[in-house]
Specification:
single chain, 245 residues, mainly alpha, 13 helices, 69% helix
Length: 245
Amino acid sequence: MAASNAGGAGSVIGDTTTTMMWIAGVPALHVADAFIAAIVAVMFSGIVAARAQQRYHPVTKNPPAHLHMDWGHLVIVGLIIVGAIAANIGLDFPAAGVWAAIVLGGFIRKTPWYEVTKAIKGSLFLISLVLSASLMPVKELPAPSPESAFGLGFVSAVFDNIPLTALALYQGGYDWGILAFAVGFGGSMIWFGSSAGVALSNLYPQAKNTLVWLREGWHVPVAYVLGFMAMYLLLGWYPDVLAGK
């Protein structure tokens, strides 16, 4: 989950929060600054997690020979990404491009609609989480600053980063690259802090044990702090009023 959120933190099509920023008018290159923090975070968290994975299931030198890449599915993934970008630029509605790609992909590979039933529970939980967060009596966030952006990373793990990003965009005045990393990677600290965690825990219910998550995933908060500080020290703080003003 940490790797997924780190990878999406600097891309306007890599995470729900960064896509929200892009739709609101944040330039893609500003968001891409978050890759600096993401690289540092993954270098630390990835090594710790890889060692834990190796203890759990060691890497084998000779993998099964029957494994192969399904290029058809890879093409469908590419169509979805291209569709989202094209629809956002041309229609200001990326979801249209995503669904058009899904329908078109049905002619390449049979669409596994049965997966929808497996995803309903997690989707309803995520929607309820976002709705609950949006109903909280929070009209604005603390004044934008490096310190408040840093704190939002921890808040996003429990408040859900989607409504948190919406509030930040409405308020304006943030360094969007720093915020992208904060709300994107920060949500990795707890399993329900981002849509990636909800999806993952839907496949592996044991991940919903928050205490175990915090105990075994201690390296994620540490990686967040290291990544945030590296980005801030290298690039500084350059706020942009933009957004919902």
